[in-house]
Fold each of these.
Amino acid sequence: MAKNAKSLNAPVKKNIFARFADAVVYDFKHNKILWALSLPGLILLILFKYLPMYGIVISFYDYNLYGGISGSEWIGFENFIRFFKDPYFFRVLRNTFVLGLYGIIWTFPAPIILALILNEVRFSGFKRVTQTISYLPHFISTVIIVGILKIVLSVDGGIINIIISTLGGNPIQFLNDPKWFRTIYIASDIWQGVGYGSIVYLAAISGVDVQLYEAAKIDGASRFRCMISITLPCIIPTIMVMFIMKVGSILSVGFEKVLLLYQPATYETADVISTWVYRKGMLEQDFGLSTAVGLFNSLINIIFLFGANWFSKKFMDEGLW
Amino acid sequence: MLSMTMSSKGTKVKQPIGDVIFDIIVFIILMFVNVIMLYPLLYVLATSISDPGEVIRGNVYIIPKGFDLGAINEMLKHPQFPTSYMNTIMYTTCGTVLTLLVTPMAAYPLATDKFKARGFISVLYIITMFFGGGMIPTYLNMRMLHLLDTRLVMIIPGVISAWNLIIMRSFFRGIPGSLHESAYIDGANDWTVLWKIVMPLSKPVLATIGLFTAVGYWNDFFSALLYLNNAELYSLQMVLRSILVDATMASSGADGQKDVDQNKAMSTQSLKSASIVLTMIPIMCVYPFVQKYFAKGVMIGSVKG
C-alpha cells in the first residue's frame, strides 16, 4: 500500500498508460466504491464509442459482412483511392465545405449579434420573453423543421409562395431548385440555433465589468459605441472558443437535415459527404469505402480543429487547450 | 438571472435623444426576431385546427378559420402514428431515467480528488467529443452486438454522453468539499454521499441534463433510420418523416377510403400540421418549467474552465 502511494507521489517519468495502471491498482485498493460507480459508464463508453473506433480499421479492408474483419482482405488505401477517383468526389467535398463555410460566415455571427442586442434591452420582462421565444426552435426535431419548411415553402398553398404571388411574382420551386438549397439550409439553421447559441454570449456579457460602461458614459460614449467598443471586445475570448469549435466541425454538416431536405434534383448543391456515405454504406452496402470516407471526414475535422486552435493561440492568445 | 445584467446602467435623469432612438431600434429588431421565430409555429398550429378547406384556399395565416379538430382526430387513427408515439414515450422515459442514473455515477468519481484514475478516464470521455467511429462502423458494431431491430438500440447507446458527463462533473466540483467531509466522519461511504448529499444538491444540473436528454430521445431520428427495420418499433420521428417529408404521402385515412376525394389533397396540409402539433405538445409542456435551468447548464458545458 505504502509502495503504491509512493510510486504515485514520486515524480514519475513513466508513460501515461503505466501511470494509469498504477492509479487503477491504487484506486482498486482504496476507492472500490468509486470504481464500482465508474463501471457502468465505462462499459457503455467502450461498447458504444471505442468499439466503433476500432471498427474504423475496415476502411483498409475489402470488408465482407459475413466474414467479419478476419474474413476480409487487407487492401491498404484502395478504398481511399476509390473515393478520390469517384466522379462525385469533388461534388460532395465541395458541397460539404461550402455549407460549412457558409455556416461560419452566416450562422456563426448570428447569435453574437442577437446577444449584443438582447443585452441592450432595458425592460427585463421583454428581454426574458424574447429569450424564451428564441430558444424554442432549438428543441424542435430536424424532421419537424424540414416538415415546416416543406409546408411553408410548398408551391401550392405555401405561405411564402402566396406572398410572392400576391406581390406579382411567379411561384418558386424552392425545394426542387439546387440554387435555393444552401439558402434554405443556412436560413433554417439560423432560425433554429440563433437564440440558443446566444446563451453563451449573454453569459459572457454578464461578466463584463460595469465600471467600463460608467467610464465610457462620462466620456460621452453613445450606447451603440459602448456595445461595439466595450461589450464586443470583452467577449472576444468566448467568441474565439466558440469559433474554434465551429471551425473544428466545418465538415460535420447536419446529416439529418440534408438527408431530409435534399432530393435527386438538388444533389448538385445538396449532396454532402455524410449523405453520400449513408447511400454508399447503408443502401449499397459498400462498408469499406463508406468507412474510409467517414474517416477522411473526421480527420479533416481534426486537422481544422487543431489548425484553428493553433491560429487562435498564436494571434489571439486564446485556445481550447 | 441573466436579465439582471445591465439594469444598473439605466439610472439617469435625462436621456439623450440618441439613446431613445437606439432603444426603439433595439425594440424593433427584437420584435422582428420574435415574429420570425414564432410565426412558422403559429402558422402550423393554426392550420392544424382550421377547416381544411380554408387551409387549401390559402385563407389561414395565423388565426385558425373554422375550428375543426378533424385533422388531429385523423392523426390519432393513423395506422402508425399512435404506436410510434407510445414507442417514443417508452424510449424517452427509459433513456432519460438511465442517463440520470449512470451519468452522476460516472461523473462523481471524476470530480473526487482521491480517485487517482480520474484524469485518464476523463480523457477517455473527452476524446469521444471530438472523434468517433462514424456512421458505418457504429452500425456494424450494433450489428455485432445483435442490437439491430431491438428496443434496446433505441435506448442504451444514448445513455452515456461526454458532454453531459463534463457538465455534471463541473457541477459536482462546485459542491463544497466540507459537506462530504462531515458525511465521511459520520461514517458514510461514497455511495451514500453521492445519493444522499450530492444528488439532492444537484437538482438544477439534473433538470438541465434531463431536459436535454429527453428532448434528444424524443427527437431522435438517426437511430431509428439506421438500426430499425421493423416498423413496429419505429420511433415517432421516423413515422413523422414519412408523413411530412416523403413526397408520396400515403392516403391519410386509416382505411384509405376514397369518399372524400376532394378533401384528400387539402387534408394533407392539415394532417401534416396536426402531426407536428401532436409531436411538439410534450416538449412545449415541459419547456417553460425547465427553461430557467438550462441557461446555466449550457454555460458550464460550453465555456472553458
Note: The beta strands of chain A are 61-62, 73-74.
Amino acid sequence: MNPSFNPSDLSRRSFIRSCCAAVGSTGLLSAMAQLRLMGAVAGDSAGDDYKALVCVFLNGGNDANNLIVPYDTSGYNDYAAARTTLSLPQSTLLPITPLTTDGRSYGLHGSVGPLGELFAAGKLAFLANVGTLIVPTTRAQYEAGSVPLPPQLFSHNDQQVQWQSSVPDQPFTSGWGGRLADLINAFNENPTLSMSISLDGQNSFQVGKSVSQFAVNRTGVVNLSGTGSAAGGVRLEALKQVMGQENQSLFQTAFGDITSSAIDTSALLGEALENAPPITTEFPEGRLGDQLSMIAQLISVAPQFGLKRQVFFARLGGWDLHDTQIDAHALLLDEISRGLKSFYDATVELGCEDAVTTFSASDFGRTFNTNGDGSDHGWGSHHLIMGGAVRGGDIYGTMPVLEINGPDDTGRGRWIPTTSVDEYAATLARWFGVSDTDLPLVLPNLGRFGTPDLGFML
Amino acid sequence: MNTTRTAWIAVLVGLILVIGVWRAGPPREQPQPGIHVLNEFSSRELSDDKAAAASEGNLVSTETDPLLGLVGEGLNSVDGNAADDVEILTELFHAWQTNFPGQGNPVGLNAEITRALTGQNPLRLELIPPDHPAINETGQLVDRWGTPFEFHQISGAHMEIRSAGPDRVLYTADDVVGNPGPEF
C-alpha cells in the first residue's frame, strides 16, 4: 500500500526543495530535448531542410457540418431533415472520393471548389470531428459527469485558448505552437528573426517560454507610428539610443533590449521583403488572402534570417453565425478556399510545397440543428490540412453519427470529439521534427489518447 | 461552594436556551449564503389587468410568487420590462460567480444553464426556483414573450444575454441584449 500524502508532513524546507527540483527537472528535460535536436540537426546530411507550419484560425467557430456533407441518398436525407433551414441543396454539393471509405458518400460545400481540387490532387486532407478533450469521452460519461470535461465548453474565449494551448485542464501558460517553437528552435542557426510570426496580432498559440512571437501585419512589418518620414527616422534613432542606455533595473534593461531588437529586426525584415523577388501567384483580396500572401513572402526570405523552421499564425473572423448563416458562411468558405489554394500555389512557385503544411483550427463546431436562421456553439468539428507533405485525398479520424440524440451528441448536435486536439497537434509536430520521446514536452496530455500519429502526414 | 454556584449557573443558562428554542418554533427556510437579494416584490400590489396578464403567459404575478428574495425571482415580472429581465439574469450570473468563484458561468444550451441555475449544481443552490413561470416545459428560461433566452457564452465570466423581443425572432431589431460581446 502506498503511503498517503499528508501535507502536514511537508516542511517548508522540503516543499521549497521539491519545487526547485520540479522546476529544475522541467528545464533540464527541455534542455536535454533541445540538445538531442541539435545533435539530430548536426547529423542531418541534407542540412538544408526547411519546414513551416501555418495555423489558420477560424475565429468564432466554423460550421463544418456544412463543409463536409453526407452525399448518399439516405445520408443526405437525414442531414436535410435534421438541419432544415441550414441544409444545402444536394445539387450544389461537390462530391468527393476519399481514398478510404466509411461506407458513406460525402460532398463538399459548393463554395470550396478550389479545396476540392486540392483534395482530388492529394494535397489536402480532412480530419473529422476533432476538438478539445481532457480524456477520451463518451456520451454516457458526458451525461453522468464521470469524466472531466474541458472547462467552459462552448465559450468562445476559453475554447480558443484551449484549442491553442491543447492543455484544457490547466490554466493557460503557453500555446502548443509556442512550446513547439521552444523545442524546435534548435534547428535554426543563429536566427535573426523569431521563428514564430503572427499575421494577426497576439495569440495564445505561439506563446512560448523562450521564443517570442513576432507580429507582422498583412502588408509587411509593423513600424512604430511617426517613424515613416525623415523626421521620423531621427525619432527612431533617438528612441534606440534611449533604449540602449544602461539601466540599473533588469526589467528596464530587458525592455530596452527587446524594443531595440524589434526595431532592428523590423528594419531588416522590411528591407528583405522589399528586395525579395515578387511572387507571381495571385491572391484573392481580403483579410485572409492578404495574410497568406505575406506568409508566402516571409517564407521566401527565411534563409536570409537563418530560419529552417517557422510557425505562422493567421486568423479569419466572422464564423460565429448565429443568424443569416447560409449566405455568410458561403462567403467565408469561398474566401478561405480561394486563399488557401493561392497559398498552396505560391509554395509551388517557391518550390517549397512539400515543406509547408497549413492546417485549420477554430473555437468549436456548431450545433447540427438550427436556431432558426443560424447555428449555435458546438464542440467537435472537421478540419483541413494542406500541403505537399500531406497524405491528401482522404478523411482521417471518425465522422460522428450525424443524429440528434445519437451516440455522439450532447444535445442539438454538439458532437463529442472523436479525436483530440492533442492527437491532431502531435501528428503535425512529428512531421515538424519532434521525436516521439519529446512529444509530451509539446503536448503534455497526449498520453491520455490513443493515436499520437493520425497518419495524415507523409 | 464554587462548584455548586457554577452548577446553578449552567442549569439556568440551559433553561434559557431551551425556552428560547421552544418560543422560536421550527427553523425557518433561509436563503443559501451568498444569494443576492435583488428585488422585494412582496409589498407591491398588482392591478387586476396585470394579474390577468400574468396568468396567461410567462409573466410572473408577484402576488402568487411564494419564493421571494431569490435573485431570479423577479424575472418576467408584470411590473418590469425586457431590459429589467436581462438585468436580472445578469445579476443572476453575478450571483453564480460569487458562489462558484473561479469556475466561470454555467455553460451549454439554455436548458443546461437553467438546470444549473435552478439547483443542479454542487451546492444545490437555487438561484431561481425550478418551478418559476419563466421556465418552459422543456426546461428553458424564456423571455416575457415565451421565446427562450439566448445565452451567448463569450467567456467564463462574460455571458451575452439576448431576448428575441416582441417579434419572437432572435437577431432582429427588437432584440433586447445584455452584456453585448465582441463579434467573433
Note: The radius of gyration of chain B is 22 Å.
Amino acid sequence: MTATSHDDAFVVFDRVQKSYDGEILVVKDLNLQIAKGEFLTMLGPSGSGKTTCLMMLAGFETATSGDILLGGNPINNIPPHKRGIGMVFQNYALFPHMTVGENLAFPLEVRKMGKSEREAKVKRALDMVQMGEFAGRRPAQLSGGQQQRIALARALVFDAELVLMDEPLGALDKQLREHMQFEIKHIHENLGITVVYVTHDQSEALTMSDRIAVFNDGVIQQLAPPEDLYERPENSFCAQFIGENNTLMGTVESVTDGVAAITLDDGAKVRGLAVNCGGPGSRTTMSLRPERVYVGGEEGLVTTEAEVKELIYLGDHIRCRMHVHGNDEFVVKVPNAAGHKHLQVGEKTLISWETADCRALDA
Amino acid sequence: MVNTADSSQDIAHSAPVTGPVLGNDGRPLKASLARSLRRQKLRALGLIAPLLIFVLLTFIAPIADMLFRSVENNIVGDVLPRTVVALKDWDETTGELPDNATFKAMALDLKEAVEDKSHTRLGSRLNYEQSGISSLFRQTGRKVKRLDVEETTDFVAAFEDMNKKWMDVENWQTIKAFSGRFTDGYFLAAADLTKGPEGIERVPENEQIYYTLLLRTLKMSLIITFSCILLGYPIAFLLATLPLRTSNLLLILVLLPFWTSLLVRTSAWKVLLQQQGVINDTLVWLGLVADNARLELINNQTGTIIAMTHILLPFMILPLFSVMKTIPPSYVRAAKSLGANDWTAFWRVYFPQSVPGIGAGSILCFILSIGYYITPEIVGGTKGVFISNRIAYHISSSLNWGLAAALGTLLLVVVLGLYWLYDKFVGIDNVKLG
C-alpha cells in the first residue's frame, strides 16, 4: 500500500520548505509520497512542523519552495475550497449557529447539490457515525465525543478522497479516545479513503496508521510502518519518542558483520546491532526496549551487571528500575510468569539481552 | 459582634419547624448557612454601599423626579384653592362664563397669591397651555390689591374692569382643564396634541414640532448607527485578525478619539465641513465642485450624521472587536475546506457569529445617539438638531420643566421599547460586550 515513486503516489511532497519569517525553516526539505487509500500519521512533538505540513496540504499555508501534488497535479496555487480535501479540526470547528444537519449539508449546498440528494447524503453520513437521530441538535448540545463524530461525518459527507485530521481526538478522555481510534480506523477501511493524520500521541499513531512519519525539527526522522518504527528505530530521537526506551552511552570500538563492540562510559564492554552509530571512535547511544531485557545471565546473550533500585508491582509484570552502567533510570519489565525471579531492592544481579535488540544509534 | 450573634440565633428559632435539615449542633442547616454567609453578605454590601447611595441619589432619584414632574400639576390647586372648588360645578362646554361666586373665589385666591407673588408662577405655568394668560395674571395681580372684597358684590364686572380678557371663556376653560393635581398636558404637548373643548386634538400643522423632532431623531440615529456598522465592521475585522502587536497599535488609534475632548472633535468638524472649510476647498481645488456651488455639509442633517458617526464609531468597533476576537479562525478554515469560497465562508459562517457584536454595538450607538446633545447643537443648525436639544431648551431657556420632563420620559419609553423589541427579535443574551 505504500507509494514508492511519484507515479503511483496520490499525495506528493516534493522538496517542500516552509518559513514564516524568512530566517528559520519550520519545514526543511520535506519529501513524502502517500499512496491512495493509505493511513499516514505525522507524529512529532509540538513545533516539529507536522501541523504546518498538514496546513500546506489543506491550502491554508503556502509552501515557501517545493511542490505539493495531489493526484499528480500540483496544487500550490489552488485555493483551499477548490482542493476537495476533507478536514477534521482539532476543536472540531462545527459551526455553532447551525444544527448538525445544516453543518453536514453545508459542503453539499456550496456544491449546489439538489435538496433530496443532499438529505440522502447527510443521512448516510450521520448513520455512518451512528448519529442519525442528532440532525436537529446544535453542536453545543452534544458531548465532545458526539461533536467529534459529527466533525468526522462533515469531512466525509462530500465524498472527499483525501481527509486530513489535525489532532482530532486530543480533547477526548482516554476511553473515548481509544474507542474513536477504532471507529476512525474502520471508516477508513470501509470507505477506502486516504487519511493524513496529525498527532503527538504515539500510541494513537501506532494503533491507527499504515505508516508513521516521525517529525522533529522540521525533518522527517523516520518514515515506517508502526512495527518497524517501534522495533527498528533508526535514530535515537525515534527510539526515545516512540515507546519506552533504555539508553546507554558509549564509544564504538569496532564494527564487525553489523555488530558493534562498544565501551560504555564506565568502562564496561557490551555488544549491539550497528544501525546508525558510525565507525570506531564515534559516540553512540544504545537503545534497548524494557521488555527485551532478561534478568539473569544466559549463554549467547550480552550479559552485564545491574543493581535493583525500585520495584513496582503492576499485575501482569513487575516494573524494575535498575542502575546499569551509569544509567539510574534503566527499566526492566519482569513478566509475572510462573517461577519468575523475585528481586529485592538493593540486590545486585545480572541482566542480558539479544545483540539484535540493542541498537547502537547516533549519539 | 454580640448583636450579630443574637440576631442569627433569632433566625435559627424562626426557621420552619416542619422537618428542617439539622446540622450536627442541632440547629437547622439553613439557619447555620445563613449565619455563616451573613458576614460575607454584609461585607459585600459595605463594598457596594457608596456606589449604591451615589446611584440612588444622582441617577434613580432624578429619574423618579423627572417622571413625577412630567405629570405633576400642584400649582393651580395650591394657588387657586377656592377657584378650583368653585369651578367644579361649572359646565365649561356651554360657552358661558362661570358664576359670580367663582369670580369671587378667584378674587380671594388672587389677593392671597399676590402676597407671595405665586400668581406670576401660575401665570407662566398656564401660559404653556394658552398664550396670554401670563400677562393676564400679572396685570390682574397688580389691580386686585385695590379691590375691596367686602364691598364688592358684582365680581364679574369687577374682573371685566380689571382686564377684559376675563370675559374670554377660553381662559376659564384652561384654568379648569388644568386644575387637577396631575395633568396629562405635558405629555399631550410633547406629542403635539392639545386639549380643546371637544377633547384631545392635534395642534395646527405649523405648530407641530415634537413629533417631527422625535421621528427625525430616530431616523438620524438609525442612519448614524448604520454608518457606524459600515465603517466599523471592516476595522474590527482587521483588528481581530491581525497579530496582537499590530492590532494593539491600531486599537490605540481607534481609542485615540476617546482621549480628545468631545468639544474639540466636534469643533474640528466645523472647521472641516463648513462652506469655506477644508473639504469644500479641496473639492473646489480638485475641480469636483464649482466654487459657487459649494456643498452644504454643516448646520444641517449631513453635518450631524458625519460628526456623530465619527464620535460614536469607537462604541461600535469595540464590542465588534471583542466578539470577533472570540471567533476562532478554524471556523472559516473549516468552511473553506468544505468547499466554500471566501465570500460564502464569510457570509455563512463568520458573519452570523459576529452578529452579537453588531447587536451590542448598534444598541450602544443607537441609544447614545438618540440622547445626544452637544454635537447636534454645534453642527446641526436648525434642521439637524435632536429632541434632546429641545429638552435642553425647555430646561434652560423656556423653563418649562414639565414639558422637558415629559419629552425626557417619552425618550426613555422609546428606548425601553426598542430595547424590548431588540430582546424579542435578537435576544439580549446574544449581546456580548467583551
Note: Chain A has a mean pLDDT of 89.
Amino acid sequence: MTDAPVILVANRGEIAMRIIAAARRIGASPVLAASVADKDSPAARAADRVIVIGASPANQSYLKPEQVAQAAVMAGAAAVHPGYGFLSEQPALCELLEEEGIAWVGPRPETLRAVGDKGSARQVAIDAGVPVGAGVEIDDPTIVVALGDQIGYPLLIKAIHGGGGRGIRLVTNPEELVELAPQAAAEAVAAFGNGALYLERYYGRARHVEVQVFGDGEGNAWIFGDRDCSVQRRHQKLIEECPAPGLSEKRRQLLHDSSRALVKVLRYRGAGTVEFLVDTESEDVIFLEVNARIQVEHPVTEEAFGVDLVAAQLLLALGRDPQLPDVGPVPPAAVIEMRINAEDPNADFQPNSGDITRLVWPKGPGIRIDTQIEEGYRFPPFYDSLMAKLIVRAHNRDAAVAAATAAVRNVTIDGLKTTLPMHAYVLAHPDFIAGGIPTSWFGPVWEARKESLT
Amino acid sequence: MAEQPSWQDVLDLIAQLNESDYESASVQVGDVSIRLSKSDAGFDMPEAAGRVGAQPRIETGFDTPMASATQPTTGAAAAAPAAALGDTIDAPMIGVFYRRPSPGAAPFVEPGQRVEADTTIGIIEIMKLMNPIVAGKAGVITDFLVTDADPVEFGQPLATINTSA
C-alpha cells in the first residue's frame, strides 16, 4: 500500500467517480481535491483522502490552479487528473505541477496552448493537412463587409478565445454583420478577456462527428473510432454514440487520417478528441477543434472497443505502458450515451437542484451508469447540471437504440426534474432511429413537440 | 409572500448577491432567516443569540466552514469537534500555516494575547505566495489548533478565540 502512487482527482461529480475507479484499477491511491460543498460527496467517500481546497463556488475552488497544486503537494501526488471542464485545459495548473515534479494527466502545456486558441488550432490543422473551413480573422470589428463577402453567407462570428458553444453568432447578410461584429467583440472582451474574433462559413445541416485519439507523446497515435454527437441543444451535447452511423468508408478514413496527422504534428500526449463538422448537403468535412482532455462522452468509445481510456491516461502519466490495443476503424458493437441532466426539458431546460428522494437504475447486459448521485444526495446548485450518464451497448445500432429506449424507461429519479423525458422522445423519433441527423435537428423538433402538446 | 422560501428562492438570492456589490445579505421570510456572505471568513452574527430554534440551517456553502469531517489527514492534526471549541479562526485558504513572520522570529501572537479583527495571527503559504491571516474578530486567543508549518485545508480551524473576553 505504501508505494501505491497517489492520484489527485481535481474535479467533482461523475468524472471524479470515474477517475477514482480508474485509479483503483491500476492500484493507485485516489485523493480528492474538493470544495466545501463536495467534502462529503459520494466521490469524497470513494477516495482514500479528501483535501478541501476552497469554498463552494467553483471560482473559489475548482478553478484555482494554485489551490489545486497546493493540494497535490499536500497529498504527495504522483499525478493530477483534471477531468473535463474546470482546469483541464489550462496550462497554468499544468506548469505549476511541473515545477513541483508532479505529472499532469493530459497533454503538454505547449499543446494546450496550441489547440486552446481557435486561431492557432486552425493553423496546426492546416500544417497537418487537415481540411479546415473557409474562415478569416477580424482585425477591426468595424471593417468587416469585405471579409464577409470573401467567406459567403450564412456565416458565423466566433470569439477566438470562446468555447463550449459560447461566443458564437449566426449572420445571414452584410447588414447584420456590420451591426453584430462590434457587439460580439465587446461581449468577447467581457466573457473571455479578449475581443479577438473570426468569421467562418456556416453549415446549416452538418453533423458533429469526433475522433477519439490517444497519443504516446512521441507522435504515435491510437485511434479509437469516431462518435456522433449531433443531438445538441444550443451547442450542448445531449446524446452521443459510437460509431457515428452511416459514414462512408472514405469519409471515415479522412476523419481518422486527419486525426492521426494532428497527433503526429502535435506529438500529442494522452487522450484527446478531434472534432469535425460533417456536412449532410455536401461532401465537406471541416476540422472544428481539438479537445485536449478526456471528454464527457468517452464511455461510448470505451464500451464499443472494450478499453479503459482513463486508466490508460493515468498509466501514461505515471510513465508506464498505457496497455491499449490496436483496433480497427469500426468497433464490434454500437453504444449510445444519454446525458441525464438536472434540467426541466418542459421548461426551457431550466436547471434545478434539491434532494434525490428515490433512485432506481436499470440493470442488464451492456448497461453502464457513470454518476455521483445516490438516494438522499442533495444535488448542489453550484455546478454543472450533469447528474448521470446512461450508456447502453448492443451488437448493432438498431439493437442499441431499442436497448437505450428500454433503459431510459426503467430509470426512476424522484425529487427533481431531469432530461429523461427528452431522451425517451428522441430515441423514439424516426429521424434519430434512421441515424445521421444534423446538429440543427433537435431545437426545432423539440419546439414542435412542445407546441403539439399545448 | 410565500410562507417558506423554496430552494429556488435561495438560489435566486445567491445569484443576486453574487452580482451585487453587497458583501453579505440577511433575509427573513416568515420564520425562516437566511444569511449569505461572499467572504471566505463567513460573517458576524450579532443577532444570532436571540432567536434560538427559529433558524433552520440552510446549507448554502456560504456558511462559515466547519471543521473538515473527512478521513484522517496526514499532516494536520485531526480537529476536535467544533462545538467544543467555541469560536474558532478558520483557514481562509488551503496552504501551509506559519505562526511567525520568518523562521526563528517570535510568533505573531501567543495564546492568552488579545487580538483585534485586523490583527495578523499567522501566514498561509500557497505555492510560494505568502498570505497574512487576520483574526477576523476581536477577542483573546485561547489556543492554536495547528502547529507551525502545518499544512491546512480550507476552513480548517487554526485557533480558538474567546470573543466575550
Note: Chain B has two domains: 7-51, 82-162.
